[in-house]
Amino acid sequence: MLAVVVVGAGATPVRAQSAATRLAAVRDGQVRFTFTLRPGVCGQGQNVWRTGVSRTRTRTTLDTDERRDVEYDVECDSGPGRVVIDKNEGAITDVRFYIGGRWRASAAAADLGAVGARETSQILLAIVQGEGGRVSERAIFPLTLIDSVDVNGDLLRIARNDTRPSSTRKQAVFWLGQAAEGPATAGLTELVGEAALNRDVREQAVFALSQRPRDEGVPSLINVVRTNRDPEIRRKALFWLGQSGDPRAVDLIEELLTRR
Questions:
Q1: Measuring CA to CA, which residue among 154, 98, 97 is closest to residue 126?
Q2: DSSP string covering 60-101, please?
Q3: How is residue 216 annotated by DSSP?
Q4: What's the DSSP call for residue 139?
């Protein structure tokens, strides 16, 4: 009886351990968990739709086999979000994300169950900030879809972090541009104007502005053309303004032509 009491007092019950602790404890194999999606998001596997004023579709090309981990019955399921993490000798080697459906049976996968919004964001953000290459890039998209968590500031910090791979920083900027919140546009405008940033990252921010709703993106791009000191950045902004077909963009281009 005494031995049982001592062991029980010194061990942490599995349910009391954080999801991050349980993830870290796995050295080899798969770890998977679910989380609650933002309202207005639905999908099937790696096909994701956002609903609102209009319905837009995002295709994430993560796997050649979209049904590797999950099975589906409906086209546009409202959740949950599903994350699969592959580990080898303690290192994370891959991250996959799906929407809806149900897990395929797997005796080998460690299932963390439903993880709360804040802890899900902490797990994915740690991967983005600590892993390299494709792994960090793949963790960014699900990070933007977690219910009740604002990650715009985190994405901006990642974009500004020159210790992160350029591809990861550009992914952060791209998904920031897809965010529905107005503050995302202000953040992108800041990135474009930061001359100390890698030009590839700033050009990605210009593109991301072009993907914002017109009443946000067009005025911001016009401001870039009028005020940015980098001629390449101004050219990029002009290009995307020209693609918009917006009357304000046409007026600006006409004004610039008459100056010559």
A1: 154
A2: ----S-TTSSEE-SSSSB---EEEEEEEETTEEEEEEEEESS
A3: H
A4: T
Measure the CA dihedral 142/146/149/154, to 10°: 0
15 HSE (CA, 13 A, CB side): 0
Do residues 108 and 45 make contact, with C-beta atoms less than 8 angstroms apart?
A: no
pLDDT at 177: 82
- Helix axes of 199-210 and 166-178: crossing angle, nearest 10 degrees: 20
Q: Are 121 and 83 in contact (CB under 8 A)?
A: no
Phi, psi angle pair for 98, to nearest 5°: -140, 160
Show the DSSP H helices in 74-213 as ranges.
117-130, 133-138, 140-143, 152-160, 166-178, 183-193, 199-210
Please give the average per-residue pLDDT across 152-169, as a whole number: 91
Q: Is 122 exposed, middle or buried (0-12, 13-18, 19+ CB in 10 A)?
A: middle
The rounded radius of gyration (Å) of the Cα atoms in the chain is 22
Q: Residue 133's closest CA among 103, 185, 92?
A: 92
How are beta strands 56-59 and 70-71 bridged, if at all?
Answer: unpaired
pLDDT given for residue 64 in this prediction: 47
**Does residue 6 register a pLDDT over 90?**
no
Query: ∠109-64-176 over CA atoms, to 5°?
Result: 85
Q: Which residues of 169-186 are buried (b: 16+ CB within 10 A; e: fewer)?
A: bbbbbbbbbebeeeebbe
